[in-house]
Amino acid sequence: MSIHGNRKVGCVMSMSHGWEWLDDLPDEWEAPSDLQSPTPYPEVNVAIQILSCDFLGFDVRAAIGHFIAEEALYDMWFVENVEADGWGGKKAALLREVPMEQTRIVYESWKTLDAVSEIDAPNDVVRERRVTAIAELKAALQRAAEEFERIRTENSAG
After folding, report:
1. What is the arithmetic mean of pLDDT over 127-150?
2. 105 CB-near residues (< 8 Å, 6+ apart)
């Protein structure tokens, strides 16, 4: 398709019968460039970034570990079950997006905390915002880990 002036010129392809469910899928989040390294896994890279922060407590580090462990267990479960359980294409596609969606939520929370350092405000205000952002990051990590576990449990046979 090409664009001439303000109008599109070209053909519109219709969805093949039976594949209409693709329109129902949420837009896939593409991990930003700062989550593309040092590993090929955005969820690992966000954990590395968070762990590099020098003022987070043991509780946040434990939440990071739980997030990484549950995401890895989710990936293993997905790979083992995607074909064996005969999931339809829509279910498999929706379940495949869960790790990136949870990584997006954790990443956004991390970036909020990271941005606190740039605030031009009195120390007590920065400290208060940092405490709030740390609590929100910890909660995001915990919710993501719980979501991985919940989906695995609810979609496992037996």
Report:
1. 97
2. 140, 143, 144
